[in-house]
């Protein structure tokens, strides 16, 4: 999940100007990489091409990213940042199932973030033939899952079973990942299509969990 204007932990109060500039440069490079991958494919795109499109020196590119595929990570991570922020805004003790669904629908509705989701669609299609790009996608999802655990733990309360919290974080993350992958492989559909798929996956993967059902 991602957006060309994602929520970022480096954009809030107390973040230094230097950190904000670094985040902006990383995002510029990520946008350039995504555009070139869509235009020419990962194989025909070099780190030099990406740096040139982003308007930075090649040494600047490698200061932030190890490879051309790694450069798209900020875009892919942006959607996860955004939906976790929506979920984190919920009050502790809220029913987790509906809270997760609200956050997912808000962040995955095409009408609300059409440009950002189209970036994701293009990257996931490009990743089908590029193992290194797929590895970045899976790494971003793993990181998102780990960051989700403390958010869910706070909402669930101190009495929640830590193992169940971990399982819910894994299931919610995988539900969104699978939904986006399935959506990316289809023609453009109605605005709610990725959100509907994600909610369907959520219900399937979390429907019997006590943290969701309240059992």
Which homologous superfamily in CATH is the superfamily?
Tetracycline Repressor, domain 2
**What low-confidence regions span 5 or more consecutive residues with pLDDT below 50?**
1-11
Count of distinct structural domains: 1
The total count of helices amounts to 10
Could you say what the CATH architecture is?
Orthogonal Bundle
Between the first and last Cα atoms, what is the distance in angstroms? 31 Å
The percentage helix is: 55-70%
Question: What is the mean pLDDT?
Answer: 87
What gross morphology would you assign? Answer: globular
| CATH topology name | Tetracycline Repressor, domain 2
Backbone structural class: mainly alpha
Care to describe what's here?
The chain is 69% helix and 0% strand. With 215 residues, it is mostly helical. α1 (17-40) crosses α2 (47-54), α4 (73-88) runs parallel beside α7 (131-156) and α6 (114-127) crosses α8 (162-184). It is globular, with a radius of gyration of 18 Å.
């Amino acid at each position: 999940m991602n957006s060309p204007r994602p929520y970022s932990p480096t954009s809030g109060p107390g973040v230094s100007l230097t950190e904000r500039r670094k985040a902006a440069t990383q995002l510029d490079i990520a946008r350039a990489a995504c555009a070139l991958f869509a235009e020419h494919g990962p194989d025909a795109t070099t780190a030099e091409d990406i740096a040139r499109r982003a308007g930075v020196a090649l040494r600047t590119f490698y200061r932030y990213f190890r490879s051309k595929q790694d450069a798209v990570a900020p875009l892919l991570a942006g959607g996860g940042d955004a939906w976790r922020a929506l979920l984190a805004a919920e009050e502790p003790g809220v029913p987790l199932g509906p809270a997760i669904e609200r956050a997912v629908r808000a962040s995955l509705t095409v009408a609300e973030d059409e440009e950002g989701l189209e970036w994701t669609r293009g990257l996931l299609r490009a990743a089908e033939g590029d193992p290194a790009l797929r590895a970045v996608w899976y790494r971003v999802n793993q990181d998102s899952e780990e960051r989700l655990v403390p958010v869910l733990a706070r909402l669930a309360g101190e009495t929640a079973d830590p193992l169940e919290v971990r399982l819910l974080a894994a299931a919610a993350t995988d539900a969104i990942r699978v939904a986006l992958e399935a959506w990316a492989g289809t023609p453009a559909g109605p605005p709610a299509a990725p959100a509907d798929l994600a909610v369907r996956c959520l219900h399937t993967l979390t429907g019997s969990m006590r943290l969701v059902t309240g059992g």
